[in-house]
Amino acid sequence: MDHHDAEADFEGLLRAADLRVTRPRLAVLRAVGRQPHADTGSVLAAVRTEEPTVSHQAVYDVLGVLSESGLVRRIQPAGSVARYELRVGDNHHHVVCRSCGTVADVDCAVGVRPCLHASDSHGFVIDEAEVTYWGLCPACATQKSATSN
Amino acid sequence: MDHHDAEADFEGLLRAADLRVTRPRLAVLRAVGRQPHADTGSVLAAVRTEEPTVSHQAVYDVLGVLSESGLVRRIQPAGSVARYELRVGDNHHHVVCRSCGTVADVDCAVGVRPCLHASDSHGFVIDEAEVTYWGLCPACATQKSATSN
DNA sequence: GCGGAAGACTTGACTCGTTCAAGTAAAGGG
DNA sequence: CCCTTTACTTGAACGAGTCAAGTCTTCCGC
Lengths: 149, 149
Fold this sequence. Notes:
Keywords (chains A, B): Cytoplasm, DNA-binding, Iron, Metal-binding, Repressor, Transcription, Transcription regulation, Zinc
CATH architecture of the largest domain in chain A: Orthogonal Bundle
Number of domains of chain A: 2
CATH topology of the largest domain in chain A: Arc Repressor Mutant, subunit A
Number of helices of chain A: 5
Radius of gyration of chain A: 18 Å
Largest interface: A-B, 40 and 40 residues
Distance between the termini of chain A: 57 Å
Strand content of chain A: 15-25%
Organism (chains A, B): Nocardioides potassii
Helix content of chain A: 25-40%
CATH class of the largest domain in chain A: Mainly Alpha
Number of strands of chain A: 6
Oligomer: homodimer
CATH superfamily of the largest domain in chain A: Winged helix-like DNA-binding domain superfamily/Winged helix DNA-binding domain
Shape of chain A: globular
Pfam family, one (chains A, B): FUR
Subcellular location (chains A, B): Cytoplasm
Protein name (chains A, B): Transcriptional repressor
Largest sheet of chain A: 3 strands, antiparallel
């Protein structure tokens, strides 16, 4: 038991996923954990505060393998670049601000995965239902109503 | 009543939306109607079969204003370029093939708009719930199971 | 601990969907 | 039919993401 009780055991997660433990991977996991819904650029910047020599290609590669392995989740709302989060496996959803692009988590209203079944799926084999709510975040909503006064 | 009974009255739709009626706009509407879920490049190609001199910028502009006016709907599944469809206002959803990217329509399981309500929306003012189902299309599904034999 | 093979990272060029900017052409109200 | 508004053309630019070649690390087996 070390002094990082509150932090996830990223090294263990990587080993459990049969992935090599490297400084860039640990730094990316910490960065995504610290800043949920960060885009690649933000992750890169955050990583470089701890590991200044990490290349942008490494961050793309790492985010790619972590996504494939299910250690991070990649989301990409229309009109946005790819964003990443550590919260995986609970099938939660997202609400996106149409004005500023801010993303927030929304718990699944149904709770089972996939949490919706399509009425007619055209023969597709469906494994996930992704829900994106669109609207205005509190800040943009008050701003808009103030402007229209 | 002209000889195009089966076709939508695109000119009327444009006028109703307070948009000028132009040859590029009519051609884009026809193209999107013919080929639902087409990306910008396909729309451009289709438009040029009728109007060979239309620029690619014009297609971007037209798709932009038609989307804003609600005459076409823009979707952008993660990892895909923007796609467009004429079917608007019925809040239907989409199923996307993880393997080949094919998109198909799925009727809304609930039927009201927004068809889901978030349990805790963090103060966001939500106006739409967009559902994307992920899986494999019939062709890719049979291909995969054949390969793994 | 140590060596070697598999895999990760660095560097730098490049692709391509999309946007920007300036000038020309067309729509449609008066 | 003219004039103003707004669309469209042309051509350059942007930026997220990818590709490719070479170097460095990880970690397994000894």
